[in-house]
Write a structure and sequence with these properties.
With 341 residues, the chain is α+β, with helices and mostly antiparallel strands. Helix content is 22%, strand content 28%. It has two domains: 147 residues, Aminotransferase class 4, branched-chain amino acid transferase, N-terminal domain (D-amino Acid Aminotransferase, Chain A, domain 1), CATH 3.30.470.10; 163 residues, Alpha-Beta Barrel (D-amino Acid Aminotransferase, Chain A, domain 2), CATH 3.20.10.10. The longest helix has 15 residues. Bound molecules: pyridoxal-5'-phosphate.
């Protein structure tokens, strides 16, 4: 075990020992390679640098109370990476290779998996980029897949907490028939200005986007899906421009299993006024409860509960975290226990 101040880790980059790589050349994927380099040697005409052929994933490994190391829904991340590759015309990494690489990189860096008590975890970042050198606009013929890990601190240092969010009307994150459904770097480039302008004053946790076409419905935050809760019902947007969050998918299943109804449909902004609870969900926080959403351009403001996380949100959060840390049974088969650690 590394001598790290686990509890004070942030969501930053902390160096670890190894990463795992795999090249696609001459029409096929090669063997997995272990590297201790943190840099990559890349042609200046590579398509990832010019035409945005890049996709990534984000997932976590957890050290449980029982000492076992668990990875959450790895197959879903592998499938989503394939879908993102389809979206920006990149070679798709076979699912078995993805899972083998993820397990390998976790094992190689086992020393960096935070102890259970700290509430920290090992963040896993797979990425896939176009490497072929060319200037014409077309998909590359060579690709590189890399997966690295970095320990990250507990998201809620002072306990599970609600935060204010803000609606941005000035910018769109993605178009209705664009790349919003794929986890590609380009969507993030497109949202950085909105994020910095809306949130770097420190007043808001993150920005929400409305649907780009009508500016009427809630889409999602820059890196998290939205859900609202009322009348024992978990409601999350149906849209062609939001990223299918694995956390959201899991929360929908959990909500049903604890007796809630689940609705997936467009959510008009005005409906925010009717929710008893609301949250942003994603791998980083699981659930980041929302105390308030402001819409500065219209002067509207929507508050949820009494500014504290609501009871359903708390129940869902504890249940999902419990499955990840092995204190709740893995009733849906979401967990891969890494053997030999
Ligand atoms: C990654 C991501 C999410 C969250 O997805 P999870 O699979 O739950 O981590 C939500 N929105 C966007 C835009 C994302 O990139």
């Amino acid at each position: 075990m590394q001598n790290i101040d686990w509890a004070n880790l942030t969501f930053g980059y902390y160096p670890t020992n190894y990463n795992v790589r795999c090249y696609f050349r001459n029409g096929e994927w090669g063997e997995l390679e272990v590297s201790s380099e943190t840099t990559i040697n890349i042609h200046m005409a590579a398509t990832c640098l010019h035409y945005g052929q890049e996709a990534f994933e984000g997932m976590k490994a957890f050290r449980g109370k029982d000492g076992k190391v668990r990875i959450f829904r790895m197959d879903e991340n592998g499938k989503r990476l394939q879908s993102s590759c389809d979206g920006v015309m990149m070679a798709k990494l076979p699912l078995e290779k993805f899972e083998e690489a993820v397990i390998k990189v976790v094992k190689l860096n086992a020393d960096f998996i935070p102890p259970y008590e700290t509430g920290a975890s090992l963040y896993i970042r797979p990425l896939l980029i176009g490497m072929g050198a060319q200037v014409g606009v077309k998909p590359a013929s060579e690709y590189l897949f890399i997966v690295f890990v970095t320990p990250v601190g507990p998201y809620f240092k002072g306990g599970f907490m609600a935060n204010p969010y803000v609606i941005t009307r000035k910018y769109d994150r993605s178009a209705p028939l664009g790349t919003g459904i794929f986890k590609v770097g380009g969507n993030y480039a497109a949202s950085l200005r909105a994020h910095v302008e809306a949130c770097h004053g420190g007043q808001y946790a993150c920005e929400f986007y409305l649907d780009a076409k009508e500016k009427k419905y809630i889409d999602e935050a820059g890196a998290a899906n939205f859900f609202g809760i009322k009348d024992n019902t978990y409601i999350t947007p149906q849209s062609t421009s939001i990223l299918p969050s694995i956390t959201n998918k899991s929360l929908m299943q959990l909500a049903e299993s604890i007796g809630m109804k689940v609705e997936r449909r467009p959510i008009p902004e005005e409906e925010l006024a009717t929710f008893e609870e609301a949250g942003a969900c994603g791998t980083a926080a699981v659930i980041s409860p929302i105390s308030r959403i402001d819409d500065p351009e219209t002067g509207k403001s929507y508050s949820f509960g009494n500014g504290k996380p609501g009871p359903w949100s708390e129940k869902l959060y504890n249940k999902l975290r419990g499955i990840q840390y092995g204190t709740e049974p893995d009733e849906f088969g979401w967990i891969t226990v890494v053997e030999g650690l």
